[in-house]
C-alpha cells in the first residue's frame, strides 16, 4: 500500500499537469483566434437583397483589414426587396471609430469558389455607435456595365490589325513577315561592331588610351610630384625647415615678445602716464605760434616796399659779384688825387 506522502505527491503532479495543460490550451486558443477572444465585441447590422456566398463566420474587413466576422445571417421579414436578408456583424469595439456613419459595405469575393466577405469602406468623420446599421451598396456587375456592341467592335479592330500583321502590311507586319527590317538591323549592328573595333584599335586615340599607359602617366605625374613635395616638406627640405625646426618659430616669438615689451614700456612711460609733458609741449607750441604771429605783424613783412628794396639790393649785389668774377682788376684800381 503506497504511503500518504507518495499519494500527496501524485496528486500534486496531476494538479500541475492539469494546470500546465489549461495554460497551453489558453495560449493556443489565443494564438489561433488572433488574440480576439478576450476583446470586447460590438454588433452591427447589414440589410441585403441576397446573401448568396455569405455565411456565418465570413470575414468582415474595413479597408482591407479584418476587424471581425459575420455572427449570423437571417431573414429580416421586411417587404422591401433590398432588405430581405439581415446579416449581424460582430466586430471589435475598438474598430468602431474607423467606421464613421457615412461608411458603406459591399459583398466581395473572398476566393474563386464563390465565398464572399463583407467589405466596409470607411468614409466621413465621427464615431459609430454599436447596434447600428451599415449602409449597403450593391457591387456593380461587370457584365451589365459592358457594352457588347463596343466590345465586338474592338474585337473586329484587333482582328484586322492581326490580319495586317499576318499579311506583312505596315512596319510591324514587315518586321514579323519580311526580312528588310531584319537586314537593316543586322547592318546597323555590324556598323556598330566595326566602329567599336576601330575605336579599340591601338592606332586610334581611344585605343591608345585603352592599351597604352600615356593617360595613366599623365594622371599619375601630378600625383607623384605632389607626393614628392609632401615628402620633401616632411623631411625638412626647403620650406619644410619651418615644419621640422622650431628655431624660426622661436625667433618670431622672441621678436613679437620684444615688440610687446616695447609697447608696454612706451605705455608705462611718464609721458604717457601724466599730463605734465603734454602741457609742456603744448606751451612750447603756443609760444612758437605767438612768435610767428609777431614776426608776420612786423612792417617789414606786411609792406611790399621793404621787399622791393631788399630785392633791388640783392640784384645789385648779384651784378657786382658777376662783374667781379669777370674782371677783378676793375675793382682793384687805386685812384690818386
Model description:
This protein has 13 helices and 7 strands. It has 337 residues and is of the alpha/beta class. Among the domains are: 39-139; 148-178. A 7-stranded mixed beta sheet has the order 1-4-3-2-6-5-7, with no helix packed on it. Strand 2 and strand 3 (65-75) form a beta hairpin. The chain starts with a helix and ends in an 11-residue tail after the last helix. The mean pLDDT is 77.
Strands ordered across the widest β-sheet: 1-4-3-2-6-5-7
Q: For the report, how would you describe the main beta sheet?
A: 7 strands, mixed
Total helix count? 13
Mean pLDDT: 77
Cα end-to-end separation:
196 Å
In N-to-C order, the SSE pattern is HEEEEEEEHHHHHHHHHHHH
